[in-house]
Specification:
26% strand; single chain; 6 strands; 2 helices; two-stranded antiparallel sheet; alpha+beta
Length: 123
């Protein structure tokens, strides 16, 4: 089990998103892997399409400051009905692009999964 890096939900598998964290640049020059659950990845994909400016001070995934940030609305689990609360996180352009790449990879995985075999493909 692993925890989503945005909402904290624990899942058996997460969608890997590669982001560059400046503080770890010398140790990980090609970037660091963050894990997002499908719901958060979908929220980031929608945020990438909407490009709504956010008022945060740093990116929720790579921690960059002083860069344009965009709002993504995620559901954070709670113990009271409705069992989640909406929360807005701020993401930079670079991380939104990384999330879009991960989203596209995930869509291809789902498309080629055994549950889609034998189906007619419509685009």
């Amino acid at each position: 089990m692993a925890d989503c890096d945005l909402c904290g939900v624990s899942r058996p598998t997460l969608c890997p998103v590669k982001v560059k964290i400046d503080a770890y640049g010398s140790a990980f020059p090609t970037g660091n892997w963050k894990g997002l659950n499908e719901e958060c990845l979908n929220a980031c994909h929608e945020a990438g399409k909407a490009r709504t400016p956010a008022s945060g001070t740093r990116c929720a995934l790579c921690y960059k400051k002083d860069v344009p940030l965009f709002a993504a609305t995620i559901n954070v689990p709670t113990f009271e009905p409705p069992n989640y609360r909406e929360e807005t996180v701020s993401l930079c352009e670079e991380c939104l692009s990384a999330c879009d790449e991960a989203f596209e990879r995930r869509q291809k995985e789902l498309w080629h999964s055994p549950s889609h075999e034998g189906e007619e493909h419509h685009h």
